[in-house]
Amino acid sequence: MVFFAFHIMVGVALLMFVLVLSGTMPFARGKLETSTRWLRAATWCMPLGFIAVLAGWTTTEAGRRPWTVYGLLRTKDSVTPSLTAADVGLS
Q: 58 with 1: CB under 8 angstroms?
């Protein structure tokens, strides 16, 4: 699971990077706003950031779990220190 989620995260990051690189030439020519092909690709790529965040979260949590389950990492040490109850409630 961790291996799969990590590859999704990296693959999505590469796709977003390719999208940005492909927009540099139309941007330099001042035609980015009228490039229908690039705008269509950007529209289809909108959910990729959210997918990358979910894959990163899955990688983090699934990678941490075996250490906690087998007693090599205490539960209180495996909790994300910056995460508050308000953050969890908001999400």
A: yes
Interatomic CA distance for residues 7 and 59, integer angstroms:
10
As a whole number of Å, the CA-based R_g of the chain is 19
Sign of CA dihedral 65, 67, 72, 74: negative
The string over 1-10, giving b where at least 16 C-beta atoms fall within 10 Å of a residue's C-beta and e elsewhere, is: eeeebbebbe
User: What's the pTM value of the predicted model, to 2 decimals?
Assistant: 0.66
Domains of the chain, by residue range, sit at 2-81
91 pLDDT more than 90 = no
